[in-house]
Amino acid sequence: MCGIAGLIHRKGSSNVGQEMTNMLQALKHRGPDSTGFAIYGEPDENTFVLRFKVAEQEDLSASLKMGDEIAARKQKVDETLKDLGVKVKELEEATEYAFRYEIQYSGDMQRLADHIEDIEGAEILSIGASLELIKDLGDASVVSKAYGLDDFTGTHGIGHTRMATESDVDIRSAHPYWAYPYSDIAVVHNGQLTNYWLMRRQLEREGQRFVSNCDSELLAVYVATHLEKGFSLEETLRKSIDEIDGVFTYLVTTKDQLGMAKDSMAAKPMVLYESDDMVALASEEVAIRAIIPHEIDTWDPYDEEVRVWQA
Amino acid sequence: MAGVDISHEMGLHTEPLKGRDIKTMFSLENEGTYAYAFAPDVDFNKRGSVDCEGKEATEINGEIRELIESGHGTIVLDNPGAKHSIIVGILHRMNFIVNGSLGYFGCGLLDGPTVRISGRVGWSFCENMMAGVCVVEKNAGSTFGAAIRGGDLVCKGSVGSRTGIDQKGGTILVGGDTGAFSGFMMQRGRMVVCGNAGKNLGDSMYDGTIYVGGEIRDLGVDAVPADLTDLDKAWLTRKLTQYEMMPENGVDHFTKIVAGKQLWSYDNLEPSEKKLVL
Q1: A214 is catalytic
Q2: Fewest CB atoms less than 10 Å from the CB: which of A177, B14, B134, B217?
Q3: What is the pTM for the complete model shown?
Q4: A215-248 in b/e burial notation, b at 16+ Cβ within 10 A?
C-alpha cells in the first residue's frame, strides 16, 4: 500500500524534520516496514551533504565481526574521499552504519558517487547542497529519533512509509530515492510501474545507473535526466504520465521545488492542501491533520494532474 | 444434505427471525421484521455527543454504539480529524451531525440514518449504503458512493475519481466536478453532477442514469447520450432544490447519459419491485 507525504513552505523555513515526522507517523498503518525522509535544509555555499551507509541494519546481527567490517568500510570511504580531493568539513555518525558528511568538492559528481559505491557494502543515500535523505527500518518516530530529525530546519521535504511488496525489507529498497548521481533530486512513489524494465533499459543505454531493482528509483532517474536535458519540472512530470505505464502517484523534490504527478487511472490516492504559506500533500488527510489540526479545505487531485510548487 | 439436518438441530428453521429475511420481509402483520434484531429503538430528540479528539476509530464507534443502545437518536461528533472508518454499519433511522471531516471508508454500510458532515470526506465514503441520507458540505475523495444500493448521497463540493462505481441504486448528487471513471459499471440508480465529469464517464454501465450539468471529457464504453425529458427535468429540479444545490441557470442544460447496450438476460426490476411481483 505505502504512504507518501510532502510539504513545502512558501515563506521561509520551518521545522520540516518534525513536520515530516508527524505526517509520516500518521501514515504508519500504510507501511510499517521502513520510513524515509528527503528534507531540504538551508544550503551552505560550496558545501554538499553526503549521506551514506556501509551496511544494512540486519547485517549487525549477522556476524560478531560486523563492527570491525563497518569500521573498515568507513575507512575505505574516507580514503576514497581523500584520494578524490574531497574535503570533509564535518562528520556525523548517525547510526552504527549510516553517516553524514559535510564535504567540499568541485569535481565530477558521478565520479565521486561511482568511487564510493564501488566499496563493498557502501551505498550513497544522497548528495546535495540542501538535500538530506534519511531512510531506515521502523516507523517515522523511530527513524526520526535515531537520526535526530526533530531539529531539522528547512523549506520542504517528502517522505514515505513502505509496505514491502516487490522487494526486500531493507534500506536499499526503502524510499525516498535519490536520483543517482544528480544532487538534490529525490522521489517518493505509491504505485507500480508496469513498463519499468523497458524504461530502465532505455535509461541505462543512455548511461544512467541504478542502485536498486525498485521501480520507484526509475522515477527519480527519469526526472533527473529530463531536468538535465533542459525540461522544466512541470514538463518532465507531464511527459512521465505519457511515457510511464502503471498506476502511480509520486512526489518529486528539487532544491527549491516540490512536484506531484498522478497517473491516468487516478488509482492511487493523494489529498492536497494549499494555502498562501504552505502546501501539504499526503496519501491520506490524517497526515495533513497531523501538522494542521484545525479544519481545512482539502481535495483530491484528478487523473493526469501535475502540480509544481516553488519554495 | 447433512448441513440441513444440522441446521434443524440448531433450531435455525424454527426460531423467530427478526432480521430482513426475504420470506417475511413484506409480511405486514409482523412489524418487527422491518427492523434489524440488533437495532434498538432510539429517540430522535435524545441527543448525545462524542469528542473524537485523541481517540481511535474503534473507540469512537464503540461510543456511538453505546449512545444508540441507550436510546440516543441524534449523535454529534466533534473533532473527527479526518479519521477513517467512523459511523459504519448504522442500521437505524437516526441523525448524525459531524462537525469536521472524515477520512477513508466513513459511513460505510449504512441502512437508514441521516448524516450531515460540515467538512470533507475521504475515499470510499458511504460505500454500500442501503438507505438514508448523507450530505457532505465540502469535497469528497474517490470512489464516493461505491456500490450504493439506496438512499441519497450528496456532496456539495467536488468529488474524486470513480464516483458511484458499481452503483446499484439510490441517488448520488455532486455540486461540483467528478473525476475519471465515474459511474463505472453502474447498474441502477441516478447520478447527478452539476459541474464537469472526467474521462470514461459511465464506462461499462448497463443501467441507471447519469446527468451532467457541465462538460463531459469523454464517455466510456457503452455510455450514450439520451434525451432529457420533462420528467427528468422535474426530478432534477426537485432533488437539487431539496438539497439547496439548484444551479442558477436551471437544469435544462444538463446532459443525460444512459447505457447503450442491451443485455439479453438482464433484469432491470428494482429488488423491491421484484419482491412485490413475486
Answers
A1: no
A2: B14
A3: 0.89
A4: bbbbbbbbbbbbbeeeeebeebbbbbbeebbbbb
